[in-house]
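Consider this pair:
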Amino acid sequence: MERSTTREEFCQAVQQEAARLADQVSERVVAAGSMRDVDVWLREQGGALLRAIVGEALPARAEALGSTGHCACGGPFQFRQRRPFRVHTVLPGRDADVRALYAQGAACHRGHWPVVHEVGVDAEGFTVGLQELAALAAVLEPDEPASDDLLRRFAGVTVSGAKLQALVQQEGARADALLQAPPGEPTPSGAAPDGPIDVAIDGGLIFVDKRWQEAKLGCVFGAESRVDDERRPVLVARQVVAVRGTPDELAARLWPRALAVGADARCVVVLGDGAPWIWNLAEVVFPRRVEILDWYHADEHVSAAARTLSGEGTPKAADWRQVPLDRLWADGIDQVIDALRFLGTHQRAAGKRQAVADLARYLTTNRERMRYATFRAQGYHIGSGAVESAVSYVVQQRMKRVGMRWRAAGADAMLALRSIYRSPGAWDQFWATRRAA
């Protein structure tokens, strides 16, 4: 067995590498004045220097660990000699060549570099840092632009499409487990927030396994997450969860996020578009709640009836639409329903009768969710724009591009990762726990 690398020997090796780069900079930049691409050149050469340092540091760490330890099979390690392996890093140029102590399990005879396991390098040699960077690129863009436009162009590294897909599957499963995990203890920071919590719920379609399927999404935020500006309140923080599955599967991920902001002790305002599954989920998950039908969806239903009764884009349709909306805004839901029932009996055309009946039925079903003046007076929000925009930037921007097709496992993994990525602070927390593990 070769003797261990001392601190002095390691520092000397690093200084020699640095001195070689310093000589090159002196000759190329100081003497020759090659300044046009100096930053690009230095980035490449600096990456080579840092990769060389990794090549010195990991063997030194391997020797510091010593020639003892146990394999996953339970048997002791049998150390053989130094052997080469390649570590893929986030440094420009990516690859660092390493020679470190190699061992075999006494019982299973499987080969191991113990230092590789200690620093979190995966089976293909990717460091945790490169796994995070590659996973982030895949969350932002499809495989080819993720590799070529993001990783290669901006980071100076390359990752195959197959590896990107494998990372999405691996980290997506971990992200989904985190979304379902109970929240940790809150950090003490003065008085606990009060006021209501908004939980907005919606859905969007994605093409999975050769058919359109609904991705259900929930958006959680408290009054403390809004900041007033000169024009309108700005939402600065919200937790988002998305899942392709049943309402119960969404609930399993939505409740921990709501609990993290005090849903067990604060009133929960549930905003939805009127889909029955939303109210059924709210009844099960949030016993102490207020249900509000999103104002803009109410407007859409009224406007659709106006178009049927008075024509697309006509002044008469605009005038008709405004009357029920003004009444709804002032808590006049019962007046609107009564007026529609009267109007329906005076329509000769079957299509118009049906439009009026459909609107009356929709308003009747959601009567108690449409007391908009009362809700505003209590300080509740009546619009679910937060979740509608979340459907766009969590689901559609990545998963609903032209010609895009998904398989179930990939779609589920991507929804979990996009949920983490689009929830402020969650991505850093996610990878901090990964590095700690």
